[in-house]
Protein 1
Amino acid sequence: AQSVSQHNHHVILSEAASLELGCNYSYGGTVNLFWYVQYPGQHLQLLLKYFSGDPLVKGIKGFEAEFIKSKFSFNLRKPSVQWSDTAEYFCAVNAGDSSYKLIFGSGTRLLVRP
Amino acid sequence: DTAVSQTPKYLVTQMGNDKSIKCEQNLGHDTMYWYKQDSKKFLKIMFSYNNKELIINETVPNRFSPKSPDKAHLNLHINSLELGDSAVYFCASSHVGGNSEAFFGQGTRLTVV
């Protein structure tokens, strides 16, 4: 069965600090990988996704993620965080070309101090 | 225009009651989902439908019955509500295909007292 692990449950940073959130998945076949963000009191929004091609993907608001197949990882990065990045971040995976099941990690709560 | 809309946004009800949450998407997607987010923010899929057909039922108690009258709507009916059903329920939709982005509704915060 597929699963997704996010190692950092709570992260606190000061503005302008760099961010890296870890995500590992378990599935041996072709996967599609996503990072979603949930701002306080809001619904989930897509930050970025990877399904093929360049393993370094760029998303909205200066976020990027790197797919490392050998490590089953898809870590999220941002060089310089802002107070407005305070949110819950979810890594998600589904398998193959016609998967109807998006599996989420447990989420990482990011607090950026001004 | 809201892409995926859910009603109501908040629902407070007593144990044992029956309630429904409605979901509609105007994105032309074929696939719709219900997710449950617990108090620790963990998101777990409950159901997925494709073209009104049930594709996935993730061992959800049969008190939960989804209904899809057409591919733009996926409603969730819950019978005999229990305290443990308190959570935020998110509806989502996407095109068919694993690399398609899922669009989420605003969520329905259900509180069972």
Note: DSSP finds no helices and eleven strands in chain B.
Protein 2
Amino acid sequence: NAGVMQNPRHLVRRRGQEARLRCSPMKGHSHVYWYRQLPEEGLKFMVYLQKENIIDESGMPKERFSAEFPKEGPSILRIQQVVRGDSAAYFCASSRAGQGSNQPQHFGDGTRLSIL
Amino acid sequence: QKEVEQNSGPLSVPEGAIASLNCTYSDRGSQSFFWYRQYSGKSPELIMFIYSNGDKEDGRFTAQLNKASQYVSLLIRDSQPSDSATYLCAPKGGTSYGKLTFGQGTILTVHP
């Protein structure tokens, strides 16, 4: 297992439920990024985390969305009280720590979230 | 002005031809530039990155960067039908230190 691992691959929730998306970075990577791709739209940045720290959450909706990357275990993107508009593909990417902004990000296969 | 602009296409080229994909960006502080390929229903796959002005070649791919013109391009030589995908340009750095800011992508179709 050398790649970024996301689970589940597909997640179905009813309106008002909670969705939890998990991401384990590539081996040797300590930076995690979450992106969302709405149907027929481009990839949009949501949040950038390092272990136990949120570095940039400028792309996160102000309500219902949260993210964490604990000292142990995967990064979690949590969406509370889901609505139909949350239906999208959620991608996690990871990178090494490194100088400046030069480290490339590698993407997982994504979680396709569907809200009934 | 959009932060990252790409022609959405579709760009159609015959098999064996050179495909030229272009991207302009607004953040002059951008330091590194990434090209991703995304097949329909799949995740983005990193294919090239470039940091310095000029050309960078990797197999059939060449990335070109001109920071003064805020322009980056990707050339695909000897295009194959398997290259048919959406190509995403993503600058990083400057005001967006960690995050990638993606363009809408250019849809490339390589026809036999």
Note: The mean pLDDT of chain A is 93.
Protein 3
Amino acid sequence: AQTVTQSQPEMSVQEAETVTLSCTYDTSESDYYLFWYKQPPSRQMILVIRQEAYKQQNATENRFSVNFQKAAKSFSLKISDSQLGDAAMYFCASDNYGQNFVFGPGTRLSVLP
Amino acid sequence: DAGVTQSPTHLIKTRGQQVTLRCSPKSGHDTVSWYQQALGQGPQFIFQYYEEEERQRGNFPDRFSGHQFPNYSSELNVNALLLGDSALYLCASSITPDTGELFFGEGSRLTVL
């Protein structure tokens, strides 16, 4: 069974600074997707970034980038130039092509003005 | 382009009652998944519907059942409610079962007294 672990229940960052959220996962599959989702207090989960395991290049989306280490089964999220609107719960998730979408327990990110 | 919509947004039930939650997927999506998110935790997969059939199921008892209609909308039914069923119930849709990217609704907050 797939598992996703986020070892940082809470993180904080100063506005305009950079923060990295950690995620490790366990899967027996060779091909899969990895995701970071954001859940603000409004509750709606929003996709931040997606990585396909067969791609070695790390995904980037504007201020968001990942460090994907397939051998180590690590998938960290880096947020650059943090903004107040980045404050939210962040969930790491893995998916075996729709067979088993698994979320981690989440990291609560606070952004300090 | 309407996103995923869920109803009701909030509801309160008592133990032993039954509840039905509804979800309309994003336009163009034919697959609907349901998740239970307890307070402070990551979403837990309940089941996925595709072509009006339950395609896969998580570790939830038979009290949790669902349905998908020809227009791809879906219902989640929970019978014999327990206090532990209190949670945010999230509906997510995807273009196909295998795309690996979920679009979420805002959820239905169920409180069982």
Note: The radius of gyration of chain B is 13 Å.
Protein 4
Amino acid sequence: QSVLTQPPSVSGAPGQRVIISCTGSSSNIGAAYGVHWYHQLPGAAPTLLIHDNTERPSGVPDRFSASKSGTSASLAITGLQSDDEGYYYCHSYDSSLSASIFGGGTKVTVL
Amino acid sequence: EVQLVETGGGIVQPGGSLRLSCVASGFTIAGRWMHWVRQVPGKGLVWVSRIMSDGTWKDDAAFVKGRFTISRDNAKNILYLQMNSLSVEDTAVYYCAREAPTGGEALDLWGQGTLVTVSS
């Protein structure tokens, strides 16, 4: 059971918008530690999608956006495409555990 | 090409040891914190360990303390993970990853991973 809670799966039709939540606590997201998001295709390594709550690395389309509020964060994908399928993980730091932590991952399916 | 390549994975018996290496190319690791993350096939990502850019400070997940040791050779551009007292629960793909320079532990470059299987 992960310290950061994500929904196991979300789905949407091509072109639609989906949102993935990441719920933490006062010792991680709520403690102002940055939240990062990764995309992972089966059999491949994760790639950084969003860093420090809202920042997109160069090369990441602006269809991907993220936000953070209180003890939760969320990733939004607009204009859903088949290439967006895969797993998405949130990542932060927890001061109680003194450790970097990942969410359990969310599988995105394009219908 | 900027990349990380892990080697050293394989099959080991419970109680055994392995040393993973992560060779960086296209950039120098000297200026970056580096991490190890593992993933049981079909499961989620789990942070393992991290090491400061000059190697003077390191930190580990609770489940590896005393068994795994992260280290680095900046001159050779290589990151290591020495794993001792392995158990079947340590079976996973091990990724090395580079921390972004933004200071928030985001991992902006990952290797392809190396599979460690602990089995008798």
Note: The radius of gyration of chain B is 13 Å.
